[in-house]
Amino acid sequence: MLTKRQNLMETIKGGKPDRFVKQYEFMNFIMEAPMGAMVGPGQTIVNDWGITFTWPEGQLGGFPVHDDEHKVLKDITEWRKFVKAPSAIYPEERWAAAIEHANSIDRNEEFVTCFVAPGIFEMTHHLMSMEDALMALYEEPEDMHDLIDYLVEYELAYAKQIVDHLHPDCIFHHDDWGSQRSSFVSPEMFEEFFLPAYKKIYGFYKANGVELIVHHSDSYAANLVPFMIEMGIDIWQGVMTTNNVPELIKKYGGQISFMGDIDSGVIDFPGWTPEIIFEKTKEACERCGKLYFIPGASHGLNFGCFPGVYESNDEAIDKMSKEMF
C-alpha cells in the first residue's frame, strides 16, 4: 500500500495510485506558524494591516467591514499614505511550536504544509472593498501595479521566514479568484496584474525546497488555468462543478491537478446526510476518474462547517476507492 504522499504523487503525475487521495490527508498543516490575526466566529478584530474583520454568530465565515469609517484605503492614488505593511519578522519564540510540529512529521508519509492567507487579490479588496479594487484596476492601473508589488514584497519577506524556520514541502495558499459562475477579472487583466505577482511568490517557494503548491480558490476559474500552470500551481483546490472538471482534466491533466468537484454548499449544510454526501462523492469520482483528480469538498481547509461532514466525506471516498480501484 502506498503512503499518503506516494499515492498523491502517483495521482498527480499520472502514475498508478492504489486509491483515491482522501481530501487533505497528504497535507499536515503547521497551523502554529505565526501570522497576522484572523477573525473567529462571533468576533470583530482589527488586524496588523488595520483591516477590520467581523464574523457574525451563525454565519460560515468572516469578511472585512467596508463602510467609510472602516476602509483602510479610500483612494487608490493615496495608497502609499494609508497602506502600511506590518513586520514579516516574528520573534524566534513565536516559531518554537511550529518548528516542533514540523520536525515531528514523517515526510515520507505526509507533506509538511504551511497555510498562507489571504492572497494578493484578496488583500487588494480587503484594504479597499471589492468594488473599489475592481474599479481601480481599470481607472488607476499604475497605482494598482505598485500596490500589488508592495503586497508581494511583504509576502516574499514572510515566505523567507517560513522557509528558513520550517522548510516546508508544501504551501497551501488561499486567494479566491471568482464567483461560482465567473472569474472576478478577465483573463487578460489577471495576466497583467496577478500572474507576475504569483510567479514571484510561487517561484520563490519552488526555488527554496517546496515541492508542492496547492492553491485554494473555491470558485469558477477555468479560464485562468493556463496562468495557474505558468505560475507553478500543482493542485487547484476548491474547483467547483461549474468549471466542468472532467473537461479540465482532459485538457490540462499532467500539467496541473484538480481537487474538489464536490460543491460544499450541496453537502455541508445543517440538513446533510451520509447519503447525500455519498451521492455527490460518487458522481465526482465517476465523472473525473482516478488521475489528476482529488475528490473533496470545495471548502478551503480540512474540516467541515457542520459537525461530521468532513468525516462522512472521507468515508464516502473510501467506499469509492473500493469500487473503482
From TrEMBL:
This is Uroporphyrinogen decarboxylase. One of its GO terms (biological process) is porphyrin-containing compound biosynthetic process. It comes from Acetobacterium paludosum. One of its GO terms (molecular function) is uroporphyrinogen decarboxylase activity. InterPro entries: Methanogen_methyltrans, UROD/MetE-like_sf, Uroporphyrinogen_deCOase. Residues 109-302 form the Uroporphyrinogen decarboxylase (URO-D) domain. Pfam families: URO-D (PF01208).
